[in-house]
Design brief:
The complex is a heterodimer of chains A (about 270) and B (about 475). With about 270 residues, chain A is α/β, with parallel strands linked by helices. Chain A is built from 8 helices and 10 strands. A 9-stranded mixed β-sheet of chain A has the order 4-2-5-6-1-7-8-9-10, with helices on both faces. In chain A, a hairpin with a 4-residue loop joins strand 9 and strand 10. By secondary structure, chain B is an alpha+beta fold. In chain B, strand 1 and strand 2 form a beta hairpin. In chain B, helix 9 packs across helix 10 and helix 12 packs parallel to helix 13. The chains are: A alpha/beta (about 270), B alpha+beta (about 475). Chains A and B meet through helix 3, helix 4, strand 3, helix 5 and strand 4 of A and helix 13, strand 11, strand 12, strand 13 and strand 15 of B. Strand 4 of chain A pairs antiparallel with strand 11 of chain B, so a sheet runs across the interface.
């Protein structure tokens, strides 16, 4: 008994030193923001579909949030960003210098521009078969018909099959039923007025759906130098909103409703 | 009929009209007087030219060396290819018969040089000139068979030189002095003494494999299977030389003469049949109009160009190389399906102009350049927005002092009150690129009451460059 245990331990050590990374693919990726990581049980799950919804006028904030998540998950590997043409016209093109400022290497990014949402999903299905990618982002504006529960399930399955992590970035859309692992709602957050060096990417993030844990609400800042998130030190969002209490895995609508009510009050 | 010298004249006639005594160049009025029931159509040189080009495309199945000889002739260089079609006579008969079946009135001849063949086609339809006999055969032809310009032809006639043979007897130096060396060169080629080579209309591929179908094929499975087997043949040929191709073209020749070409390009050279087949499958699936076989394809050809040295693509133990190869294949597939201009990568561009600083280029063409990305300054807030509007949008800005950041501005019909502002960052346009000097931009980072951060600029220095400068919004920060 002791002999086999020792043999196993030594085998594991050999494998580790041989540099085979396949053993750690299912580890979770920490965001860097400790309370969020705690709720996520260590971090974002790889090989899953995560959704990020942008509130009105918070599209850039949501983009930066998604870029940060993708960069954390992908590490040094390539990030493939599929975006629909209309999204670029309405909300702006992705800028290489913008990525650089967030400490994300622009050479890591591959951009696929599609004319319609259907093409974007077709591209995504093909892209998700490539296990060599670090992460993929699918940016879709509005509420096209193709983004229904069936597509969501297909994407989730495709992610799990090759262990590629996918982020669905939605603009000008209301969250609907899906099989995503986590769903985030992003709003803009004001910078602190006293600070000289204002302008760091800071946003209100609300985890409204978490398949394997609780939900939560944090104001996060992306640390451009180190490439990770951290909890922003007590900056109040411009619209004072009641923080959604960390409740059970409730349906997404209640979180939105309570946020809406609080908004009316505040 | 075409308008010439202020009168409508006949430019082409059919056999029946010629039999009735009409001639080319005759005024339309005269012709109508002779034959009241004459059917007349306007000459359309553009359409004629297009038709000639389409026939030239069809001739690509015999040889790539096809030259247009407007308005109505084609020159084909079949040197070394005649044995593939059963010999010179069989080839010539086949071409003429195929064109006649399409409804064209055609004459043709084969000779050692293009000019000789052209002259023979005019006067001895269907003739194969034995090698070396060009001079003997073309001598009795009238001088018009050289297709020189009308002035020269007229001059020859006036001088009493009515046949090619008579002109050939004159001293070359006399002819050059009087008519120029170009005319003498044409004469020499007609006599078979020299030749001007014909350039291929479409650049020659490096490798090519094709399959003939005596019974034209139209079904998708057969077409796909043919492409696969052609890719196999091509792959073998490429492997023998250790090369791979970056551009592959599949040409489908329809039985009724139309030719369709589908091109697929890759980022790095490849010769794998599976890869080639997959890329064509993506391209064919993504075609707006599916490939219409009409009555069927009787020839399918796969050619490879842009070939380079290419190492064997066996699976490596090096995981990084495998990953790289997988991603390159993905990029090729996506480029085949959506177009190379839709699959992009960022390339550093040594410029400070915001819209050009990180150029998005087709991912297949990205190469390592000496230019590197600028290093980000540590601990500073981002100076450049993540989302940049491709076309900066004009805004109504209210600034206390013209040189300062705006206090309020109106963008897309909504007013924003500025709470924090930083700037200006002055960016001068690259004066060496523009004819008229572009105004300098003063960029400001501003944050509004809702916590949104924008990148605005004032276009032009107040009072120094522009009287009332306009304000623009260029991007949105995170």
């Amino acid at each position: 008994m002791g002999g086999t245990a020792e043999k196993l331990a030594s085998l594991r050590a050999t494998l580790a030193t041989a540099g085979l990374e396949t053993l750690v693919t299912h580890a979770r990726v920490p965001l860097g923001c400790k309370p969020a990581d705690a709720v996520l049980k260590g971090g974002l799950e790889r090989g899953a579909l995560h959704e990020v919804y942008a509130a009105t006028n918070a599209e850039s904030a949501a983009t930066a949030f998604t870029a940060g998540l993708a960069s954390r998950v992908a590490g040094k590997k390539k990030i493939l960003w599929i975006r629909q043409d209309f999204s670029a016209v309405e909300f702006g093109e992705l800028s290489a210098t913008g990525f650089l400022e967030l400490s994300i290497d622009p050479s890591q990014i591959l951009l696929v521009c599609t004319a319609h949402a259907d093409d974007a999903i077709k591209a995504a299905s093909d892209v998700l078969t490539c296990a060599a990618l670090g992460a993929i982002v699918i940016e879709i504006p509005g509420e096209p018909k193709i983004l229904d529960l069936v597509t969501s399930r297909r994407l989730t399955l495709a992610c799990a099959q090759k262990n590629v992590t996918a982020f669905l970035l939605r603009f000008a859309a209301k969250p609907e039923a899906s099989t995503a692992e986590t769903r985030w709602l992003i709003r803009a957050a004001a910078s602190s007025k006293e600070e000289e060096n204002w302008g760091q990417p800071v946003f209100e993030t609300e985890l409204v759906r978490n398949r394997h844990g609780r939900t939560g609400h944090w104001v996060m800042e992306w640390n451009c130098d180190e490439g990770l998130f951290r909890e922003s030190d007590g900056r109040q969002p411009a619209h004072h909103r009641a923080v959604v209490s960390a409740s059970g895995d409730g349906p997404a609508t209640t979180a939105l409703e309570s946020a809406g009510r609080a908004h009316a009050v505040g | 009929m075409a308008k010439e010298k202020n009168a409508l004249r006949l430019s082409a006639l059919d056999r029946k009209a010629t039999a009735q005594g009409l001639t080319i160049g005759q005024p339309l009025a005269n012709a109508r007087a002779m034959l009241p029931e004459l059917k007349v159509m306007a000459a359309n040189d553009g359409a004629d030219r297009k038709l000639l080009e389409r026939i030239a495309d069809w001739c690509d199945r015999f040889t790539p060396f096809v030259a247009l000889d407007p308005p109505r002739a084609l020159l084909l260089d079949v040197t070394g290819a005649t044995h593939l079609f059963g010999g010179e006579k069989t080839l010539l008969d086949h071409i003429l018969a195929a064109l006649r079946m399409q409804g064209f009135a055609v004459r043709g001849a084969l000779a050692g040089t293009a000019m000789a063949a052209r002259a023979c086609a005019r006067h001895r339809d269907g003739l194969i000139v034995p090698p070396g006999d060009e001079m003997k055969i073309t001598a009795p032809f009238p001088i018009e068979a050289l297709f020189l310009d009308p002035v020269t032809t007229h001059a020859f006639r006036r001088a009493g030189l009515k046949t090619i043979g008579q002109v050939a007897h004159r001293d070359r130096r006399e002819l050059t002095a009087r008519f120029g060396s170009a005319m003498v060169f044409t004469l020499e080629t007609a006599l078979g003494k020299t030749e001007r080579p014909i350039s291929p209309r479409i650049p020659l591929p490096d490798y090519s494999a094709e399959r003939n179908f005596p019974d034209p094929v139209a079904t998708e499975e057969v077409i796909r299977a043919t492409l696969v087997s052609l890719a196999d043949t091509l792959g073998e040929a490429l492997e023998e030389r250790g090369e791979g191709a970056r551009r592959l073209e599949a040409a489908f020749f329809r039985a009724d003469g139309a030719v369709m070409r589908i091109v697929v390009e890759t980022g790095s050279p490849t010769r794998e049949p599976a890869v080639i087949e997959r890329l064509f499958r993506e391209k064919l699936d993504a075609l707006a109009d599916p490939l219409d076989p009409g009555f069927g394809f009787d020839l399918i050809r796969l050619s490879a160009s842009r070939t380079q040295r290419c190492e064997s693509a066996l699976a490596d133990f090096n995981a990084d190389l495998n990953a790289e190869r997988e991603i390159r294949f993905l990029v090729d597939r996506l480029s085949a399906r959506f177009g190379a201009h839709r699959v992009l990568a960022f390339q550093p561009n040594g410029t400070h102009i915001p819209e050009a600083a990180g150029l998005a280029v087709p991912a297949q063409e990205v190469r390592n350049t000496k230019v590197t990305w600028e290093i980000r300054r540590k601990e500073e807030a981002p100076r450049r927005p993540l989302r940049l509007l491709a076309k900066p949008e004009e805004i109504n800005a209210i600034a206390a002092v013209p040189a300062a950041a705006p206090r309020r501005f109106r963008w897309r019909r909504a007013w924003h009150d500025v709470v924090l502002a930083e700037g200006p960052e002055r960016i001068a346009m690259e004066w060496w690129r523009h004819v008229t000097p572009q105004p300098t931009r003063d960029y400001f980072r501003v944050e509004d009451t809702n916590g949104n951060r924008f990148w605005l600029y004032r276009d032009g220095l107040y009072a120094r460059e522009v009287e009332t400068p306009r304000w623009y919004l260029h991007g949105v920060f995170a």
